[in-house]
Amino acid sequence: MNAQLQAIGASDVLTPALTRDKQQVARQFSRAAQTYLSAATVQQQTREHLLQLCRQDGIDGHWLDIGCGPAASLKALQEAGAQQISGLDISAGMLHAARQHCPDARLIQADADHLPLADHCVHGIFSSLMLQWSEYPLQTLREWARVLRPGGTLALATLLPGTQRELQQAWQRIDQRPHVNRFTPLADLLKSASLSGLQLQLAERDRITDQYASINDLLRGLKAIGATNVNAGRHPGLGGRQALQNLASAYPVTVNEQGATCYPLSYEVQWLIFRRY
C-alpha cells in the first residue's frame, strides 16, 4: 500500500476531476427522502458492514455521521457505544426524514466540505456512500480530519470506478453523453487521506449486485435512492421512449435461478478505516 501511495504525486489529487452541482445533488436526495430506506438495498448492505467494522474497532465518545440521510445509522452507533451522536447532511429532505426516525439526535444541514464544527471535537466519523459525491476528495478529507480528535477514527464506505458498469456500457452503445456518475480511483482516495493526516488501518472491497426485472424498474430504483446522474454534459431526462427501448436492447441481461430475465447493476464498494494522526 505504501508503495502505491508513493507512486502518486500530490498534484494528482489536488485538482478536482469532477464537475457537479451540489445543490442539485441535495435536491435529488430530498426528493428521494421518503423512498430511500425501502429502495436502498445495496446502501443498506454497505452501511451494515461498515457498522460491523466499527463495532470491531470500538465505538465511544462523540460520533458524527456525515451524509446521514434518513438517520439509518445513528441509533446503531449509539447502541454500539457512542455517548453522543450527530448527523450531518446537505439535503433538507433527508434531515426531515431523519428527525422522524431519530428525534433525539443532533442534526445539522451543511456541506461536507465545510463542517460547522470546532477542531478536534469528535471521536469518530462514520460516512457510508457519501464520499463518492465529493467534488474534491482531498479538501473533503482534510475537513473531516480537522474535526477528528488525534487518535480518532474515520470509518467510511465509498464507490469506486466500475460501479454501474452495466448501465454505463449500455448507454455507450447509444450515445457518448455521461449517463453514469464518475468515481474517484482508490489510489487517489488513499493519497488524499494520507495528505490529510489519516493513517489507513483496514481496507476491504467487494462487488454488490442488484437485480431488476426490467430496465424501467432499474431506473426507478436509482431515482428512489437519489442516485441519478448529475455530471456536466448529461442529457436532460432520459431521452424519451425510444432511448429507453434502445437502452433495454443494449443492456447485458442475465437469467436468475427461476429462469427469469434480470437486469443486473453492480457496485464496487470500498470500506476504509483510518486513524487520525
From TrEMBL:
<keyword id="KW-0489">Methyltransferase</keyword>
<keyword id="KW-0808">Transferase</keyword>
<feature type="domain" description="Methyltransferase type 11">
    <location>
        <begin position="64"/>
        <end position="155"/>
    </location>
</feature>
<dbReference type="InterPro" id="IPR029063">
    <property type="entry name" value="SAM-dependent_MTases_sf"/>
</dbReference>
<comment type="pathway">
    <text>Cofactor biosynthesis; biotin biosynthesis.</text>
</comment>
<dbReference type="InterPro" id="IPR011814">
    <property type="entry name" value="BioC"/>
</dbReference>
<dbReference type="GO" id="GO:0032259">
    <property type="term" value="P:methylation"/>
</dbReference>
<dbReference type="GO" id="GO:0008168">
    <property type="term" value="F:methyltransferase activity"/>
</dbReference>
<comment type="function">
    <text>Converts the free carboxyl group of a malonyl-thioester to its methyl ester by transfer of a methyl group from S-adenosyl-L-methionine (SAM). It allows to synthesize pimeloyl-ACP via the fatty acid synthetic pathway.</text>
</comment>
<dbReference type="Pfam" id="PF08241">
    <property type="entry name" value="Methyltransf_11"/>
</dbReference>
<dbReference type="InterPro" id="IPR013216">
    <property type="entry name" value="Methyltransf_11"/>
</dbReference>
<comment type="similarity">
    <text>Belongs to the methyltransferase superfamily.</text>
</comment>
<keyword id="KW-0093">Biotin biosynthesis</keyword>
<dbReference type="InterPro" id="IPR050602">
    <property type="entry name" value="Malonyl-ACP_OMT"/>
</dbReference>
<keyword id="KW-0949">S-adenosyl-L-methionine</keyword>
<protein>
    <recommendedName>
        <fullName>Malonyl-[acyl-carrier protein] O-methyltransferase</fullName>
        <ecNumber>2.1.1.197</ecNumber>
    </recommendedName>
</protein>
